[in-house]
């Protein structure tokens, strides 16, 4: 694989978007904090460096900066928004507060087609997305104007002799229509980076890395049946075969027939060594009478660790623990802004590696979610496994507000299965981020036949999203909702009313707890 493109993060909300756009070009990149030591950056032998945007002003006290040696590494450097302002500020230019903040769509006029704008003709007008309150007022020595807008006389600048470039706009956002084309022009045409970050190459390199890490030893994996743990397990199995043992813990909070489906898929069809542990009684016993959402999560996490630890100790030669950690988790831990103050309970299998004295194997830690699916596809994994909607770690516990009872879980499982069937039948399953049922801790009066009923309410939830950070409620055809409601009320004993959740995130969350 070629040398990486390094993105130095100055706290922009778009930093991950830059990485995703670069990866879409099949170019490997990493996000590092702007505080990274110059020697550490040099040791990575970057093919190019991108300085992200950020919310600060370069002339404000305590604003993030970077070692000026970055501009002397001899590799192309691109500054985006704050990154451009900082470049000019550090190299002798002048940055000032703009008289009018420029936010939203703008048009730049190309003076010289170089760097990001190499694919455009001189004199072309190009639509971009701006988001800044400061602007460059004077360029450093050696720089010249590449493009300008009505509010930014230096909308794009370059020092071609040193291969230093800056843009005031954001090429990484979808609102800059030809932004990916611009990034390709900078990375491929200007920087000469090789586009060899492909799923097939990743599989090949990961298998070799796993074999080197594990050696002749054995590994265990907590298999949930979700996309992340499934692809991680398949990668490790490809590397070490039956020296990987997967432990599938049935906590009694799974969807209808989940345990059966997981065993059929992974043990029977994909030929992984899987131990099925039915610990439903243990989990539900620990949750009895508990209604607080965070307490539920903590109980589920603790019991999971106890059960997994107990089963794993039976595999005496295991020295490694496989986890499906993804790149956003890694970015969060090294972010310039610092790790999140609040992390959801029961994230992966927290606490297990230390408790069991195991070394972590995280084969997906460099991948975004969509890349995980592509890697799974490259290994020949079934489409249905790779396109499964996300399912929360605590399972149906967060879809059963209030006290958890077996009767409520049974109602919820049946209603949820019907909703999934109808979503799939309507061709919506892969267009929706998540769709599921929730059972409410209230009963309402109904009439069935000529008799009065007093039964539970089921709420249906379906959202559209790109990454789960924000979400909007899905505008499902009323006929689909009507058929789902009719089937649930007719086929699921214990439910006499169905509602549809039309709240977005924010202010609501996707899950109810």
Detailed description of the structure:
The protein is an alpha/beta fold. The chain has 15 helices and 18 strands. The strands form three sheets. It has a nine-stranded mixed sheet with strand order 2-1-3-4-9-8-7-5-6, sandwiched between helices. It has a five-stranded parallel sheet with strand order 12-11-10-13-14, sandwiched between helices. Strands 15, 16, 17 and 18 form a four-stranded mixed sheet that branches. The chain folds into three domains: 5-190, 3-Layer(aba) Sandwich (Rossmann fold), CATH 3.40.50; 199-386, HUPs (Rossmann fold); 406-500, GMP Synthetase, Chain A, domain 3. The chain has helices at residues 15-24, 38-43, 82-90, 179-190, 199-214, 227-240, 258-269, 280-287, 293-312, 327-334, 352-356, 369-378, 383-386, 406-425, 478-491, and strands at 5-9, 29-33, 48-51, 77-80, 94-110, 125-138, 144-148, 156-159, 164-167, 218-222, 244-250, 274-278, 318-322, 359-361, 434-448, 451-464, 472-473, 495-500. The protein starts with a strand and ends in a 13-residue tail after the last strand. Residues 338-349 have low confidence and may be disordered. The longest helix is centred in the middle third of the chain and has 20 residues, at 293-312. α7 links the parallel β11 and β12.
């Amino acid at each position: 694989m070629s040398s990486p493109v390094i993105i130095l993060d100055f706290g922009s909300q778009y930093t991950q978007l830059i990485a995703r756009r670069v990866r879409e070009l099949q170019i490997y990149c990493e996000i590092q904090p702007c505080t990274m030591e110059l020697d550490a950056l040099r040791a990575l032998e970057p093919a190019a460096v991108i300085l992200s945007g950020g919310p600060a002003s370069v002339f404000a006290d305590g604003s993030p900066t970077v070692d000026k040696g970055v501009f002397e590494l001899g590799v192309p450097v691109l500054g985006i928004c704050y990154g451009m302002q900082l470049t000019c500020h550090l190299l002798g230019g002048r940055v000032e507060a703009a008289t009018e903040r420029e936010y939203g769509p703008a048009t730049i006029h190309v003076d010289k087609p170089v760097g990001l704008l190499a694919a455009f003709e001189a004199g072309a007008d190009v639509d971009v997305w701006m988001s800044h309150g400061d602007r460059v007022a004077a360029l450093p020595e050696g720089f010249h104007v590449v493009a300008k807008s009505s509010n930014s006389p230096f909308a794009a600048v370059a020092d071609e002799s040193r291969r230093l470039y800056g843009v005031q706009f954001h090429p990484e956002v979808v609102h800059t229509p030809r932004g990916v084309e611009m990034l390709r022009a900078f990375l491929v045409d200007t920087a000469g980076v090789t586009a060899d970050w492909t799923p097939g190459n990743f599989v090949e390199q990961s298998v070799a890395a796993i074999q080197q890490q594990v050696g002749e030893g054995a590994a265990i994996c907590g298999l949930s049946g979700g996309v992340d743990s499934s692809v991680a397990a398949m990668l490790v199995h490809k590397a070490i075969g039956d020296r990987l043992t997967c432990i599938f813990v049935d906590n009694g909070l799974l969807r209808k027939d989940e345990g059966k489906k997981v065993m059929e898929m992974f043990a029977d069809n994909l030929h992984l060594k899987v131990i099925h542990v039915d610990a439903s009684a243990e989990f539900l016993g620990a949750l009895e009478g508990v209604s607080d959402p965070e307490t539920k999560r903590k109980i589920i996490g603790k019991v999971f660790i106890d059960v997994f630890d107990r089963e794993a100790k039976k595999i005496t030669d295991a020295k490694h623990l496989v986890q499906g950690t993804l790149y956003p988790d890694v970015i969060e831990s090294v972010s310039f802004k610092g790790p999140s103050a609040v992390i959801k309970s029961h994230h992966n299998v927290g606490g297990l590696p230390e408790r069991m004295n195991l070394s972590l194997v995280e084969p997906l830690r460099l991948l975004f979610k969509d890349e995980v699916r592509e890697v799974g596809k490259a290994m020949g994994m079934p489409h249905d496994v790779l396109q499964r909607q996300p399912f929360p770690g605590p399972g149906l516990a967060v879809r059963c507000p209030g006290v958890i009872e077996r009767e409520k879980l049974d109602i919820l499982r049946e209603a949820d299965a019907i909703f999934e069937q109808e979503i799939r039948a309507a061709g919506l399953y892969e267009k929706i981020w998540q769709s599921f049922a929730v059972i409410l801790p209230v009963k309402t009066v109904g009439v069935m036949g000529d008799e009065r009923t007093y039964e539970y309410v089921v709420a249906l939830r379906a959202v559209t999203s790109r990454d789960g950070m924000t979400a909007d409620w899905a505008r499902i055809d009323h006929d689909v909702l009507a058929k789902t409601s009719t089937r649930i009320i007719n086929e699921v004993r214990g439910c006499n009313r169905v509602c549809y959740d039309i709240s977005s995130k924010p202010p609501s969350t996707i899950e109810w707890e």
